[in-house]
Amino acid sequence: MTDREYLGLTVPFMLSTMTQPLMGAVNTAVMGQLPDPKYIAAVSLGAILFNNLYWLFGFLRVSTTGYAAQAFGAAD
Fold first, then answer.
1. Per residue of the chain (76 residues), what is the pLDDT tens digit?
2. Residue 17, phi then psi, degrees to nearest 5
């Protein structure tokens, strides 16, 4: 496996992992422009719940990646 092939497999995984927490930060920044603090509180709670669910089911993402890597290594 060349470096280019390796990066082709890993870069999408890294990008998807990085964008998930950024979503909550961007939503909070956008809602921070509204006059009532209830909007920030609602988005913050939603972001916290979504982050917790995302990481709670993270084992599925990691195990799927492991099986995909094994299948790729076996040329299957």
1. 788 888 888 888 888 778 877 887 888 888 888 888 898 888 888 888 888 888 888 778 778 878 888 888 888 7
2. -70, -35
- Residue range(s) defining the domain that contains residue 22: 3-73
pTM over 0.85: no
* CA distance linking residue 70 with residue 64, whole number of Å: 10
DSSP string, the chain: --HHHHHHHHHHHHHHHHHHHHHHHHHHHHHTTSS-HHHHHHHHHHHHHHHHHHHHTHHHHHHHHHHHHHHHHTT-
Count the domains in the chain.
Answer: 1
Pairwise CA distance, residues 10 & 15, whole Å:
9
- Do residues 40 and 32 lie in contact, with contact meaning Cβ atoms separated by under 8 Å? yes
